[in-house]
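REQUEST ID: PR-0412
SUBMITTED BY: lab tech R.K.
PRIORITY: routine
TASK: structure prediction, single protein chain
INPUT:
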Amino acid sequence: MNRHKLLNSRRLSVAGFSFLFTYILSFQFEGQVLYSLLDMHGADADTYILVAIIAHFAGLFTCGLFIKSQAAAKNMMLAGMGLCLAATLPFFFAPSSLWLGGLIISGYFSGCSVAVWGFFLKAFTPENRRIKSCADVLIYSNLLMIGVNVVAVNRSTFIGLSLAILCLVIGMAFIWMLPADQENEQNKTSKNKTYGSIKNPIILLCLFVFIITINSGLMYQVINPAFDHLTGLVSWYWAVPYIVALAIMRNLPMKEAKHSKILYIGMAMIIGAFISFMLLKRNTTDYLIVDTLMLGACGIFDLFWWSILGEMLDYSDNPAQIFGIGLSANVFGVLCGGVLGMAVTSIGLSGAEVTVIALTVVCVTLVMLPPLNRQLVLLLKSHVYLAVYDNMSQSQQTDIVRQIKTLDPLTVREQEVLQLILSGKSNREIAEALFISESTVKTHTRNIFSKYDVGSRSELISTLLKNQRVNDT
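STATUS: complete
OUTPUT:
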């Protein structure tokens, strides 16, 4: 696929998914259109919302079990969006069993459609550029969602519902135009990556995502209802700080160091949001403060794990499974936070007590962040959040290698191979850089492992970086 076709496919993929995600955000997943419909008919919102979220989680988590190829992913996405459309039509009529059935169907298949987008993200966006594709999707879908919400809340719920369905139709048209089974040349070589198992990093990432997004569930059930009287403002401002945070993160210099520190800023913003919610009143200014802090933090964290999952796709033959399971942790966290929020509301806990719960969640994630960062560095150290080795000067890189004693001295060629390993090169890329065969590279690599007394690239990098941390302290 030439560069022009690849760029065009990326744009189609981002556009199609953005319209799908607009539908999910405005209707299916805690959407203002759905809330407006439930409020209009006096229906039990908690039951419907929980059913929709559980179904969405199930779609994300299970889709990778039966979707194994890009062609199947395209068919699944088109069929899933079509089923979502059909399942949403009963909401133009009075509440019935079709509403619950529709939320189960649309929730499950919207989850499947989100998961299979991992195939298109991997195929049409080059490595280390996926943070921009993920940011684009989140920005565009939230901008569109604001438009749908404003119409649904301030003018007509049914017009808002019609716009959400229109987004599905437009999204299907863009996905239809995508090639069924092609990938860029860079992804064809990604299968040579041998940084070790992806299992431990993704488990730790999912646990981190799950815990931190419990606060999002609390936000939906505790913070948002407290500002229900500011309907007009909430309908358009709610996602603005989120979009601004995404735009800032998207446009940070790719080589800028210490991006992981931004995650600590995000945690500080969550703490600030809940403390402000506890101390302030419920007027317009107070809402602007609380929402800006909370949604700005959500933007930082969402782009963090979306883009990390995007880079992890190169380490799996089934992108739908990686992308789906990763994002299902987000949904599960929101679900558990929502249930916790309902419990908090039912027993009438004060704002101070809710803040203590939220701060406890943040403290747990603060403890988790350093080991998570180390695990991901081993796998994705070229990611903009996690750049470590590449941001060091040549002398610092050389010092790291020299400071660890080997069982036997490295040869000149082995030193060259080691430097390229630490730069994230695959065996094929090292062979091309040094004008030697891949089998020769493998021989040098085995010798390096033997001299450092390690068994894999991940263990080698861990040993070197661990030595660097000891020296820094």
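NOTES: The chain has two domains: 3-380, 392-472.
REVIEWED BY: pending
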